[in-house]
Amino acid sequence: MNRQSLIEQLDSTPEFDICIIGGGATGLGIAVDAASRGYKTVLFEQHDFAKGTSSRSTKLVHGGVRYLQQGNIKLVMEALKERGLLLKNAPHLVHNQKFIVPNYKWWEKPYYGIGLKIYDWMAGSLGIGPSELLNTEETLALTPTLDPDDLTGAVLYHDGQFDDARLAISLAQTAVTLDALVLNYFSVTALLKKQQNVCGVWVKNQLTGKEYEVKSKVVINATGVFTDRILSMDNPEHESLISPSQGIHLVVDKEFLPGDTAIMIPKTDDGRVLFAVPWHDKIVLGTTDTPVEEITEEPIPLKEEIEFILTHIGRYLTKDPQHSDIRSMFAGLRPLVKGKSKVTAALSRDHLITISESDMITVTGGKWTTYRKMAEDTVNLVAEKLQSQITCVTHELKIAVLRPVPASIEGLTDEQITTLVKQTANHEMCMTVEDFLSRRTRQLLLDARIAMEKSPLVAAALADVLNKDQAWIQAQINNFKNIATHYLPH
Ligand SMILES: Cc1cc2nc3c(=O)[nH]c(=O)nc-3n(C[C@H](O)[C@H](O)[C@H](O)COP(=O)(O)OP(=O)(O)OC[C@H]3O[C@@H](n4cnc5c(N)ncnc54)[C@H](O)[C@@H]3O)c2cc1C
């Protein structure tokens, strides 16, 4: 993926079939689907790929045991099918993760045991391993730091785990291999209209300031929690579609949950699911569901959310994690489709596709796990509009294999880090220190202090490849540190 050569192609393309706004899971999935059906496709992302919600998930490719509890059978069936397809098409990016649901009350083993058997059954031939009932010894052998008082055993089940930002970059590469143009740091500033119909966009290259008029037969709004802003460009009077809900994660050392089995607590005080999941040699604890008003690129965990997770997880572990144990914390905003319920945990995770009077398509909601299905549904609609019924091929499309990049740079030499910076700048459109430390590697999410320490080295290496001066290096370090301080407990 060479950004400069993609920009040159943008200059020389008079009209695209499909223009996608937003480079998260939804937009990138659509780019892959559209390009694989042969449509001339362009995607614009205002920051970096997956800078929004798509790099801040719990990293699970799952059917959603919680939605099963809520009785949303259709959503669970669809997500389980997508989980199976993703494991087949991207085995290098998704793996089978064991979870246990610990049992402390007499009814929990039969209740969750039956529920998870139904979950297995719903996955059908795309199942990834049967659930099992464990006794206390078997449970503690898998999760030795689980509180043993009153423990009567556990139900073990399987789901998928992935690295969200890595999948996003792999989808961008897949789309480019299929001849799509995908560009980060290109912000859509206005919609182009002809006789009231949207027929393209105005975009600005955020790194040079240059503006472009881009014509396209179809424009798709895939901007997650920013959906309403694009809808306002189309019609300032539009009805709001999004109800944003914040979820945070705390990252702690592996000593709190050694081994490779995750813990799932099906019901916290506020009726949510809580996870403790091993991820890249750390443990991710989360998440919360807090309705928020403000939509921002860098949401910040609230004190109450941090307390909530520490208190709840402490009830299940022999050693309670404290503030000082937090290596990093990150927050994301769910782009939930507006409903009548005031409680965001009860809003649907189902996706919604709408077409405005001006013919712009908007895709919202859903989850990472179902990105492929969302893309299929959206491009089916486009195919109808363009009267070119080319069928979807992504059920079997393999997702690109990138050159390896470690999630953590802890312990690497300066020379090794410099080589990685150059590799990602040359092949993965890594343009800033934050791109490298947050989404090419995952150092910011794994240990924010180490990420801050390494930022001057990363800035200097990146300046070398991108031909930047000392002032750029300093601005990059300052900007990164401003962001990274919010990943440490305050
Ligand atoms: C806490 C949390 C945990 C989650 N855990 C899971 C999980 O474990 N498994 C799972 O399957 N799902 C999970 N999800 C859901 C999943 O992460 C989201 O559904 C998904 O990432 C949404 O992707 P998106 O592309 O719609 O939005 P985003 O990722 O936010 O992408 C939208 C993009 O549009 C860009 N944009 C906005 N305006 C413009 C413009 N004018 N021009 C160009 N670009 C623009 C933004 O910069 C952004 O990058 C979780 C969500 C949260 C919040």
Helix content: 25-40%
Largest β-sheet summary: 10 strands, mixed
What's the N-to-C terminus distance? 38 Å
Spans where pLDDT lies below 50 across 5 or more residues: none
Extended strand count: 18
Q: Proportion of β residues? A: 15-25%
Overall domain count:
3
User: Are any ligands bound, and if so which?
Assistant: flavin-adenine dinucleotide
Q: What is the second-level CATH architecture of the largest domain?
A: 3-Layer(bba) Sandwich
Tell me the radius of gyration. Answer: 22 Å
Please tally the helical runs, counting DSSP H or I stretches of 4 or more residues: 15
Name of the level-1 CATH class of the largest domain:
Alpha Beta
CATH superfamily of the largest domain: FAD/NAD(P)-binding domain
- Overall outline: globular
What structural class do you assign from the helix and strand content? alpha+beta
The CATH topology of the largest domain is given as FAD/NAD(P)-binding domain
Explain how this protein is built:
This protein has 490 residues and is of the alpha+beta class. It has 3 domains: 3-53 and 166-241 and 346-385, 3-Layer(bba) Sandwich (FAD/NAD(P)-binding domain); 93-161 and 243-338, D-Amino Acid Oxidase, subunit A, domain 2 (D-Amino Acid Oxidase, Chain A, domain 2), CATH 3.30.9; 414-487, no CATH class. 36% of the residues lie in helices and 24% in strands. It contains 15 helices and 18 strands. It has helices at 3-11, 25-36, 65-69, 73-89, 108-123, 136-142, 164-177, 227-234, 303-314, 371-385, 414-427, 433-440, 443-446, 448-466, 470-484; strands at 16-21, 41-44, 60-61, 94-103, 132-134, 153-162, 181-183, 186-194, 197-205, 211-221, 242-253, 261-265, 274-279, 282-286, 290-291, 328-337, 351-355, 361-365. The strands form 2 sheets. Strands 3, 4, 5, 6, 11, 12, 13, 14, 15 and 16 form a 10-stranded mixed β-sheet that branches. Strands 1, 2, 7, 8, 9, 10, 17 and 18 form an 8-stranded mixed β-sheet that branches. Strand 9 and strand 10 form a beta hairpin. Helix 2 crosses helix 10 (371-385). The longest helix is centred in the C-terminal third of the chain and has 19 residues, at 448-466. The mean pLDDT is 95. Bound molecules: flavin-adenine dinucleotide. Flavin-adenine dinucleotide (FAD) binds at residues 21-27, 44-47, 50-54, 56-60, 187-188, 222-226, 247, 287, 332-335, 366-369. Flavin-adenine dinucleotide binds next to helix 2, strand 8 and strand 16.
